[in-house]
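Entry type: protein chain
Record version: 2
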Amino acid sequence: MTWHHTIPVTTIFNLSTAIPLFPCFTRCRCRRRPPMALISSPRPTLTSLSIPPTIESSTTAIAAVRFPKPRRIPATIQAVAASSSDIAAEFEEGRLERPAWTGETPLSRLVGALISFKPFYSVLKLGARQVLISTAEKTNIPWREMTKEVLESEVYQELESVKNPSVIYPDYYLNPFHAYDEGNLSWLAAAEAEAATMSMVRRAIPDASSLHEANEIVRGNWLRTIDQHHQRYSGNSTIRDILDVGCSVGVSTRFLADKFPSAQVTGLDLSPYFLAVAQFKEKNGAARSKPISWIHANGEGTGLPSQSFDLVSISYVIHECPARATVNLVREAFRLLRPGGTIAITDNSPKSKILQNLSPVLFTLMKSTEPFLDEYYLLDLEGSMREAGFTNVRTVLTDPRHRTVTGTVPC
C-alpha cells in the first residue's frame, strides 16, 4: 500500500504504538576537527542504559505492534542461491521508485516540520532509543549486557593507538545522531553499536529462528553478491586487499575477513571510539593468519595509495551521509581500486516494499534520527558510480530491506 498525504497529525504523534526502525550504526566520513570535549569523551555511566519510567510505561502497548513481515525465506534456500538474480528473486519490490515519505512530497515536508519542532523531537529521540533497546532484547539480543561488558572492559586503552589527531570532521558529523547527543564520537555509541547491528539484522528477517539464521540471509547474500560480481567482471583478478569503509566496530570487517581469509583486510572509520572497540574485540577474539588493520581516516579522502585494493566495501553507511559525501566516497573508492577491482555498497533499498509501506509513526521515528535520509533516497547512486568511472554497475535486493550495488574498475 501507499500512504496518502492527508494523514492526521494525531496519528503521527501516537508514539505509544510505535517501534522505531534504525537502519544501522555505521559511519560516514567527515571533515572538521571536533571540540576537545568530544575527542576526550568521558566514560558513560551505566545508569545511562536505564529506561525512564515515562518511556518504559508505554512498552506494553509497543510490544503488541509488529513490523511488516516479508515472506518466509529459509536460510537453506539463500545458502544455495546460484546467482545474484536468484537472490533478488527471493524478495519483493514495491511499486514506487522510492518511499513516498522521502524527498519533496507533501508527506515528507509534513514529517520534516514535525521533527523540526524541538519538544516533539526530544520525545522522539528519547523514545526511539529506549524502545530500540527493549525490542532488541525481546529478540534475545542482550543489548544492555553487551553494552555493559564493553564499558567495563579495558577498551579505553585502545583509543590512543587508533586515534589520528590530524583527522578533521565536517559540521554534520558533530550533530546529534542516532539519539546520541555527541553523535558518533562517544563511548556509549561505540559500546552499543554491535547490539544495534544485530537488531538491524533481526528486523530485516523477523521470521528467522535465530540471529545466525538471519545473518545467513542478510550477510550471506551480501557476501555472495560481492563474490559473484568479482568473479564475473574482474578479469580473473584475485582479492588480495580489502578496504571496509565506515567499518564501525568491525562487524562487517570481520565478515569480510572470514569470507576472504587469504586477503589482507583493513577497516577504516572516522570515529576513534568505534575503532577502539573494533581493535579491542579483534585482539580478544580468535587469532587470524592475517590480522585486520584499523585506520582512523576520512573515507572521502583516505590518504591511502592509489590502486592499492581489490575490493572496497561500504556497508550501511551512505544513508547517514549527505549526497555530496556519498559522491566523494564513490570517487575515492575508484581511486583506491586496482583495475578489475570491485566496489560494493550495501544499504537501504529505495524499492523495498517493506520500507515503502512503513506506517507514519515508523517513518517519522526513523527520519527523526537519520537527518540525511531524503538525500540518500533521492540520489542516483548507480549514476554516481558510473560518473566516477565504474562499469558493470549492478543492483541486487539482497534481503527484504537492503540492496547491494556493485561496480567494477575497468581493466
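Comment: The CA atoms of residues 44 and 188 lie 6 Å apart.
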